[in-house]
Amino acid sequence: MSKNAYSLPEDKRFSGAMKRRGFITLAGGALAWATAARAQQVKRVSRIGLFLPPPRNSEVDAFLVALRGLGWVEGENVHVEYRDADGDDNRLPALAAELVALGVDVLVTATFPGVLAAHRATTTIPTVMIVGPDLVTLGLAASMAHPGGNITGQTFFLTELAAKRLEVLASIAPSMTRAGVLMQRGNPLNNGTMSAMTNAARAMKVELRPIELDVPGDLDNALSIFGSTAMDGLVITDANAFVTNSALVAAIVDKCRVPSIAAPIVASRGGALVGYGVDFTSMFRRATVFVDKILKGANPADIPIEQPTLFKTVINLKTAKALGLEISQSLQVRADEVIE
Question: Which helix (H) or strand (E) segment is 25 a member of?
């Protein structure tokens, strides 16, 4: 057979080469598209930097469950970088800086120390405050409706709540004339808290006896202070230190042996007689709505800061029994939680 028997006409050879080049180009384009698609898929895994003063607890679990309910699934389209300060607020700035260095898409924190740490670490990464102080008063937001910066979330007015707690305690212990006020030393909200409580105490003819503690600190010295302070009622303020140090609160409540009131979570864990305040678990769940909006492109400057609408009352019958107090059935029925 001749050599020409295997040859193709010139136009056919040219057509075949064009087809091969076209195939190579098409294959290369498909490969490039697939690579770009994979890159986009990686980018869709958003990163949340969650850092809190206390170790992981049921509130954190509630946050993660609510996040999943909004379609954010760990390992699929979101990754949560979690850090906790183990009850030491002094560690919060380092944790915030660590998460900022990781380049998270949104920071999530709680309490005044946490918000302050986030603010000092970044003014550009969107930040969601699960629960914290009045950002407008602190100068960290322009207004509740239009925060104007990189921080939004939920706040409640701690000072007014402290005054309300004094009123609730007086309704349970009507003979109270001297109320101790437990505060964490150095808390910038102490002055406002005492001012609001003083106005309420004056109307009720109750003398306030403020007690500031270093937390963490020497428990024996703390207890000696309470042993030398005459009181027939105790209001525990909303310092994060008392939320995270339930053993300290329990020791103080036991030492004072007077009717006491605190945040619901403190009453549940630290043995205060009554808990009254916001429902922190609900606020953790609600915080995911802010995170969801931001991860979908919303600007935190335009997301209104919210105030909680759900308040919770806890009655600790164990503490009441230890104090020899009778809690009326009507009050127990109205309570959201009764500890027996």
Answer: helix 10-43
Phi and psi at 7, nearest 5°, equal: -90, 150
At residue 142, the 3 state secondary structure works out as coil
Host H or E run for residue 179: strand 178-184
How does pLDDT run along the chain (340 residues), one tens digit per residue? 444 444 445 555 545 555 555 555 555 555 555 555 554 544 579 999 999 987 778 899 999 999 999 999 999 999 999 999 987 888 999 999 999 999 999 999 998 889 999 999 999 999 999 998 889 988 999 999 999 999 999 998 777 888 899 999 998 899 999 999 998 888 878 888 899 899 899 999 999 999 888 877 667 777 777 777 889 999 998 887 787 778 888 888 888 899 999 988 888 888 899 999 888 889 999 999 999 999 999 999 999 999 988 888 999 999 999 999 888 898 899 899 999 8
Contact 92, 117 (CB under 8 A): yes
The residue whose two tokens read 């931001």 is: 294
Distances (CA, A) of 98 to 78, 80, 149, 153, 162: 19, 14, 21, 22, 34
Strand order in the sheet with 207-213: 207-213, 178-184, 233-236, 260-262, 274-278, 311-316, 337-339
